[in-house]
Amino acid sequence: MSKKTAGSEIERLIALLARLPGLGHRSARKAALTLLKRRVDLLQPLAAALNEAAAKIVECPNCGNIDTVSPCTICQDPRRDATLIVVVEEIGDLWALERAGVVNSLYHVLGGHLSPLDGVGPEQLNLAKLIERAVPPVKEVLLALNSTVEGQSTAHYVTEQLQGHGVAVTRLAQGVPMGGELDYLDEGTLAAAIKSRRPI
Amino acid sequence: MSKKTAGSEIERLIALLARLPGLGHRSARKAALTLLKRRVDLLQPLAAALNEAAAKIVECPNCGNIDTVSPCTICQDPRRDATLIVVVEEIGDLWALERAGVVNSLYHVLGGHLSPLDGVGPEQLNLAKLIERAVPPVKEVLLALNSTVEGQSTAHYVTEQLQGHGVAVTRLAQGVPMGGELDYLDEGTLAAAIKSRRPI
């Protein structure tokens, strides 16, 4: 946007919106215009929600989840199976598993994956705390990391670190996704699906 | 996101972000997590920028542009060619023309296009003010509306309204866009380009 057409306030708003994932500069401009058109029902509530989130939401010192209580609701929940910790890369992965409602475990958020080229080593991840938590009553640590090179090498490293701690270390099954059409799957997925084939 | 995993503050933030154009529910979740991870350098500045924009940015009563001054910087600029008003549908279109820097005119933002099915008639557009402005020194009104059915029927309506006002009403040329490959252009564009062909 030209300096001539609008104040630095709009430019600043657009520049900040453009830093959100999923919004480029063009969609940030559209978003800013939408916000300015809908001040009462969108802009002001969003500003309030941001301030409230900044004030109330804290990271769980135990598992790395975010919540308004500390430790987080999941860590405090006595109905959770405290013998199983599911390790994920990001909080979004934890949310995905909770939405699916397929496991009633505790979690541990690493905060990313090992990526030496980006300067992410073991110290940059929430890893020491995981080792500390891997004691009774915990019996199993399930590494629900992304099925990417980085995710899998992180899983390898975490597995090594947990050896000798007396906990079983497991990983997610690999294979054909539900609704997946063979013709569209990559070779790696097909190879894993065949290698891990099961009797019907 | 499950009720179990995070407070209503996060859910509310995600719901508001999801109402921005270009952000679905999934990308709104990612944006919320990014904001919560980067509180100092992103969340807090964004909240401040929203509040500042809400407080300072006003719609120009003359042309419908937004700015921190009223009338807007463009309407106040004595170096602008005050004989030409370029009419656009949205403020984003005005910004696009200003970025391109191809015209040094005044503008008029209609705020949309006629769309009877959506309840948008002439009264819902910033049209009466345009008729009012179409007096000397204005000599020409250029309708830079979208080349869509709605944009063109709006142009037709505006042209009718401006008849007898002593101003020339023009529209943008239609044809092959710069860098456009004929093989990828639609029939309408090709037909317009041939109809308006020019000697070399």
Overview of this protein structure:
Two copies of one chain form a homodimer. Chain A is α/β, with parallel strands linked by helices and 200 residues long. Chain A folds into two domains: 3-56, Helicase, Ruva Protein, domain 3, CATH 1.10.8; 66-171, Dna Topoisomerase Vi A Subunit, Chain: A, domain 2. Chain A is built from eight helices and six strands; from the N terminus they run αααββαβαβαβαβα. Chain A has helices at 8-17, 25-37, 39-56, 73-76, 91-100, 128-133, 149-162, 187-195; strands at 58-59, 66-67, 81-88, 105-109, 140-143, 168-171. In chain A, strands 4-3-5-6 form a four-stranded parallel beta sheet. The first copy, chain A, has a two-stranded antiparallel ribbon with strand order 1-2. In chain A, α1 (8-17) crosses α2. Chain A starts with 7 loop residues before the first helix and ends in a 5-residue tail after the last helix. Residues 1-5 of chain A have low confidence and may be disordered. Chains A and B meet through α1, α2, α3, β2 and α5 of A and α1, α2, α3, β2 and α5 of B.
